[in-house]
Structure of Aspartate/methionine/tyrosine aminotransferase:
Amino acid sequence: MVHVLPSAPRLAQPELNIPAFTPRSGLFTERAGRIGTEEAFNLGARVAEVEALGERVIRCNIGQPDYPLPQHIADALKSAVDRGLTTYCAPEGIVELRRAVAESLSERHRMDIDPDRVVVYPGHRPAIGFAHLAYVEAGDEVVYPSPGYPLYESFIPYFGSVPVPAVLREQDGFGLTREVFEPLLGERTALIFLNFPSNPTGSVATRAQLEDLAELILERTGPHARVFSDESYEAINFDGHEHVSIASIPGMESRTILSSGCSKTYAWTGGRVGWAVYPTVREAQVARRLSINHFASIPPYNQWAAVEALTSPLSIPAIQEMVKGFQRRRDLVVAGLNAVPEFRCHMPKGAFYAFPNVGGALERLGALEAHARLPEEVRGNTSPATLFQLFLLHEHRVATVDRRSFSRHGSEGQHFLRISTATSEADLEEAVRRMAAAAGDEAGFQRFVASGARLTL
């Protein structure tokens, strides 16, 4: 005989207000179209097109040192591979590297950094994106330098936050002044990007200048606002200038995410080892969780090489030699540009870029008028300086990067190019000579604009 158990009483089901499914008209989501990018990477394909015609382009567009990875770091990298350190590791980075970062920064900036506040990344770009993700709600304001590293701005439309560019002025040496900065801060400020030494301008900040900025931040923003201090070029300073971190200013360590890495300091852009020091262990734990979801961990052999870079006494003379070389090149390029009547270039104090004002060349060539005559859909995606940049590339075989690629907001009416000095002195001398020739080539410029060439990046 089969006994049938009584059915359990059915619970009332809540009504679900599920919206009707509407098929998308395209393959990609709307949010995927909102995220920006770094246009300097798009330029590589244009350079390759020109070189395919059989003439070498002088590449003054690439933001990576052309010096070799110091041998002691390369040896440590190979040793780590030989020892089989090729597996997954801690998502926040191996403890040895986090400890080395904490000790190095604590010593330099007179801070007391807990290694548990350090998170290691594949380069420092993820730290920028994670800062937007973790600290900024839709409608919050993000303050950032313009011109500045493009990823500060590119995430803003993706997350629905509000761009608040701090437009840097040539007459201020592209420094961030109180006059510019103060009106931008308020209760809606969630995230502030600072970058010293600066890409693309090469400006640096003194302790007094950072104290002034810190005073404004502490007075005008709430306790949850965070400063993202991009210190990727911290080791490359000229003329006796010393790098100062805003995190070392009283009251700012608890507000600041300090980000740097191996790419610029050790001429190791391919190693993809960066890090961020968070204000609290709790914030570092949130960043660790984000890392797990995006890339799990970075190769331990690269991290062991980074430990060697940070702790070996052989690193200091290698860095000093590189910085001396970059200073010689800076002097050569700035003097050469300022000898051309159509150019004006301030003297950068750090990094490895020159950022000349090419407005005189644009006026002589008729680039402002040529830009104004472009169809609206083209004109909105280029600038007079972009036209000159592309003319330099296609007709005079010099690759540079336009002002618009370093934050679009605030770039209107600013006529600058970024020139990387990460190439040989002979190439830099020839590049300046070609730029001078291009500045006087009115007929060639007009032919180029009328040629049907693509006038956007």
